[in-house]
Amino acid sequence: MTYKVILPAAGSGKRMGAGKNKLLLELEGVPILIHTLKVFADDEDCETIILAVNPQDEKEFTDLINKHHIEKSVSMVPGGSERQHSIYNALKTIKTDGIILVHDAARPFIKKEHILRLTGVTEEAGAAIIGVPAKDTMKKVMGGTVTETVERSSLWAVHTPQAFRISLLHEAYEKAEIDSFLGTDDASLVERLGHPVAMVEGDYDNIKITTPEDLFFAEAILKKRNI
Length: 227
Ligand code: CTP
Ligand code: MG
What we know:
Elements: E1 3-8, E2 26-27, E3 30-31, H1 32-41, E4 46-53, H2 58-67, E5 74-78, H3 83-91, E6 99-102, H4 112-125, E7 127-133, E8 138-142, E9 145-150, E10 156-165, H5 166-179, H6 187-191, E11 198-201, H7 213-226
Parallel strand pairs: 1-4, 1-6, 4-5, 7-11
Antiparallel strand pairs: 2-3, 6-10, 7-10, 8-9
The structure holds cytidine-5'-triphosphate and magnesium ion.
Cytidine-5'-triphosphate is lined by residues 8-15, 22, 52, 79-83, 86, 104-106, 208, 210.
Keywords: Isoprene biosynthesis, Nucleotidyltransferase, Transferase
Protein name: 2-C-methyl-D-erythritol 4-phosphate cytidylyltransferase
Site (Transition state stabilizer): 15, 22
């Protein structure tokens, strides 16, 4: 099943605190951005990569893509002030239907087998996301006090990619814009249409590199994969 992918890469990496876009930080000598791009560049089912980029990073990203011989066409669109705006800028450039994946450039460990399952489910269901069952006990806390212990068996931590029929994602983004709704993921915009979203079980190591300690986890994941 072929698909297109939007990679939001236009953040500033505040929580990483590296003084630059965290996607430029290296794991085993290769920038995080390139690790993620390679997954999709090497996947023959991936037709196009659309990268949302902060204009100040554009030249450095372009140089890295050339240096690391990413052969697939990568088009760049300017990022927005929020992740959702960056993705909408990319989505607006897509005029055909089919399947679109949205995947954080900061999650370099996504596996082909999970992309395949997601696109397969999306073909039938229209929308599918990847996640893992919650491991910790979850509680609701207000003002420093526990107000509720939430039943864990129905809770999942949500990752990317998230996959959609392109026409459905257009509709979801148009409605979010009209309603000034800002979600923390793309599926939440589709849920607002009343459209079901399927959950596909992924891997606990599909981490998003967010804070400095994630770099240690990421190096460990890479080492394990190279054994
Ligand atoms: N992103 C984006 N446009 C934004 C904000 C984020 O394209 N305005 C991208 C990031 O580059 C990242 C993904 O969305 O690949 C997930 O965001 P996050 O992990 O929050 O990255 P940052 O926003 O860069 O980090 P922080 O929130 O710590 O500043
Ligand atoms: Mg952010």
